[in-house]
Design a protein that fits this description.
It contains five helices and five strands; from the N terminus they run E-H-H-E-E-H-E-H-E-H. The protein has 155 residues and is α+β, with helices and mostly antiparallel strands.
């Protein structure tokens, strides 16, 4: 079922508990997210850092007043490609009971339009290697695997 009543908007501080709940409900992500009220200040501090950045934006997908998805964008400029900019889409999450309803596609389409409006060269994202459904989803939207990513955990 596709729901056209989804509105993508910049996240607000009052959205933070629902955003955290989206990530806490994701067993595959393994980031240790939680809805424990004691750690809400950590999420709020992260929200404030993102909101203060001129290059980052945290978004939510709002359907009838409920947060049903979230994602973040970062526009970065590098010396490669003659100093062009790229948009990185990060932390894409759709509420588990709302998957398959066009919410993820609406969020990615919104990000791509923002990238076009900012005249960036490309849009890129990474996806957990275990998320094969997500990989098929991104391929359907026109994304192609191109690089191998590496991480070094510091904490």
């Amino acid at each position: 079922m596709q729901d056209t009543d989804v509105r993508i908007r910049a996240a607000r501080p009052e959205d933070v508990p629902e955003i955290a709940a989206l990530f806490a409900d994701d067993a595959l992500g393994g980031h240790g997210d939680t809805t424990d009220p004691e750690v809400l200040p950590d999420y709020l501090a992260a929200f404030q850092r993102i909101a203060a950045s001129p290059n980052e934006t945290l978004y939510v997908a709002d359907r009838h007043g409920e947060i049903v998805g979230t994602f973040q964008t970062l526009v970065t400029t590098t010396m490669t490609a003659r100093g062009s900019s790229a948009m990185i889409i990060e932390a894409v999450q759709t509420r588990a009971d709302c998957r398959g309803q066009g919410i993820g596609a609406a969020m990615i389409a919104f990000a791509i339009e923002r990238a076009r409006a900012e005249d960036v060269r490309l849009v890129q994202l990474t996806s957990n290697a275990a998320r094969t459904d997500a990989h098929r989803f991104y391929a359907r939207l026109g994304f192609a695997p191109s690089h191998l990513g590496f991480k070094l955990k510091l904490k």
